[in-house]
Each structure stands twice: as structure tokens, then as C-alpha cells.
Amino acid sequence: xxxxxxxxxxxxxxxxxxxxxxxxxxxxxxxxxxxxxxxxxxxxxxxxxxxxxxxxxxxxxxxxxxxxxxxxxxxxxxxxxxxxxxxxxxxxxxxxxxxxxxxxxxxxxxxxxxxxxxxxxxxxxxxxxxxxxxxxxxxxxxxxxxxxxxxxxxxxxxxxxxxxxxxxxxxxxxxxxxxxxxxxxxxxxxxxxxxxxxxxxxxxxxxxxxxxxxxxxxxxxxxxxxxxxxxxxxxxxxxxxxxxxxxxxxxxxxxxxxxxxxxxxxxxxxxxxxxxxxxxxxxxxxxxxxxxxxxxxxxxxxxxxxxxxxxxxxxxxxxxxxxxxxxxxxxxxxxxxxxxxxxxxxxxxxxxxxxxxxxxxxxxxxxxxxxxxxxxxxxxxxxxxxxxxxxxxxxxxxxxxxxxxxxxxxxxxxxxxxxxxxxxxx
Length: 426
Prior knowledge:
Shape: globular
Radius of gyration: 21 Å
Helix content: 25-40%
Oligomer: single chain
Structural class: alpha/beta
Number of strands: 18
């Protein structure tokens, strides 16, 4: 079964979305107990919040037990304010469960080192434990995985099986899959439907989780950069890989912005509702690195920045080692047992470095000091000072010429796409 509506110029209304969601549920058969796996507030533009609310409203009205497990991955648990911002006011708070990626998972199988060696061209050969939240095995008639397909730095294109084994996954597969992506090379993965990490995720679900009743609801979103309005260009629902592949085709068309020339300076704004850590805010680095000219600069306007990692252990490791580039990070992995035990953090350090090719200047508010930012390898400048020069309320997405004649390329939300110089993107 696949239910879809899509097109590069399509804009699915809330009424049309409700009809598509309900059609999917009506085809699911008799339901008594359903688990919804939506993303958290860091994917606010995915429309997963309203979709979750629609599913909950319909099923609870029919007497179905519905639990909701936001797929946090390694992110902080959502606050009540964040839950309400994302999902609205109608769902009772006790319907939401918290995913604990370190403790509340079960291992369903092992992927051997031979496969990892093949996927990485011999760069890693560790085994990977397929770990997911134990709630997935609590006798649900339907597990509904909801999320947005968009270019992603670790896996190529976000969502589908990633939402299961990372979003609701455990530390082993999260850490080792991210490190696999890092050694495979971020520029080789960004925006690709197929990647070594995607093959790992699909193999994990198909081999060890195939008995779970998972249906995917995937969206493709695009922002109108003139009006800042979000449009749902695609909705896809179904059980197999074709749902994901069709969504990827559309996302590659509407979410990858290919530039005719390389900007020397890129300015990115991090919305305070979404981005409060470099763990998330470094999407500004990932999604622009294929666009920025050599010896250029990335200016990251980060008014709500307050930490580096969203997990105390990871935050500590980022502070200890910093964004120092691939060779140094790989050396630290060999030498430091704690970093070796948290390969997702090591991967993040690699992804967040420009490898010395361009300068990265973070501009925080008062939630973190400039010295703290500099201590992890970035340049730093006060948000108020830099926002006065590069005012997010005045800049338009794309190329801007400043009053002093300086040309910059502005991005209002790095989570919404991938920007690349067309000669660098395959």
C-alpha cells in the first residue's frame, strides 16, 4: 500500500493532509493499540506535529490506545512548552513517552564487521548492535513512523529507517553509524538517497525488525524564500522502501539549492526554538560546506546557543577535544577510550570542522561565553554586534549586497535544505 500526493509546485493544505492521513489509517485494518514515532521540536517544520495530532484525534475517538514516543535520538527530552509548540494542546501530556537512548533499549541482533568493512571500504570493521526502544515490542498493532525527508549529513537523506534505529535507537548503532558516515566522507553522503549509512539502517530494519508493524508517513517540505512560508510538496505513506525513494526524488528537486558560484561569506541564522546547541546548530556547517569558497567564512548567528552537546557526556567530549578536523579526531579516537566509546561524538567533531578550508564564526547571545566557543575551535563574536551588521529581519535568503558593498549569502534556516556549488555536487 502506498498513499501519496506530490509535485514540485504542489502545496498540500491542512484539509487535504487530514484526508490523506485518515485514508492511511482507514487502510490499516482494525487497531487497538498504536505507537506514533514523530521527531522532536528540532524538526519543527516537518509537519509531523500536526500529523501526530490528527492521528491521535482520529484513533482515540475510535477507542484506540495511542502512545507517542518522540524520536529524540541523542537529543534532550522535550519540555512541556516544546511539546505544546510542536503537537498543540489537545493531546494529554501523559500520552508522550521519553526515549532514553542509553538505557531503555533492547538489542535485537548484530551486524558483523565484514559488512561494516565493505560499507566503509575497509576503514572500520566493528560489529554493530541493532538496538531500539523496548516500547516497540509492547504489542502494538501499528507503529506509525512520521517525519520529513530532507538532505542529511550522516545518512544522505533523513528519515525512513533512520527514524527507527537512530531516532528510537540505542547508543551502539547511533554511535557507530555516525562514525561510519564520518569516515565515508560527508561530501560523499550529503543529499544522496543511497549511502553506506542508509544501507546499514535498511539492513538493520529489514533483518532484525521486519516483524514490527511499521508504516511510514513521510513529508517533503519547501520554504518559499520570498515569503518565508512553508509548503508541503509531498506526502507519502506506506511500508516499504519505495515510499522513501519517491520522497527522496522530490526532496532532491526542491531542497537542494545549487549555486552558480561559491560565496565567500555565508551567514546563517539559527532559530532559537530549534537551535540551542552546536550539536544541532552545526547544520549551518554541514548544509553549507559544499557551497563556501576556499578561505571563505561562515557566520553563524546563534542567539539561543547555550551548550555544545545535548547530552552531558557528549558536551564534555566536545569541550575536551573541539572541532579539530579529521586527522586529529581520528588520532584522539585511537588514544582516548571515552571518545572511542562515543563514536557519534567523534563523528560530530569531524562533521563540524571545516578541515581548515574556511573560517567558522559563531555569534552567541548571553547563554554561553565567547571564550567557551573559542575553546572548541570556532571563532566567536557577540550576537548583538553581528546581528546589527547582518540583521536577520532585513536580509533575504540568497545573495545580498550589504551597505558597504560586501556580498554575502544568507540562509534563514539551515535545516530546510542543502546548499552547494553545482560543480561540487553530484
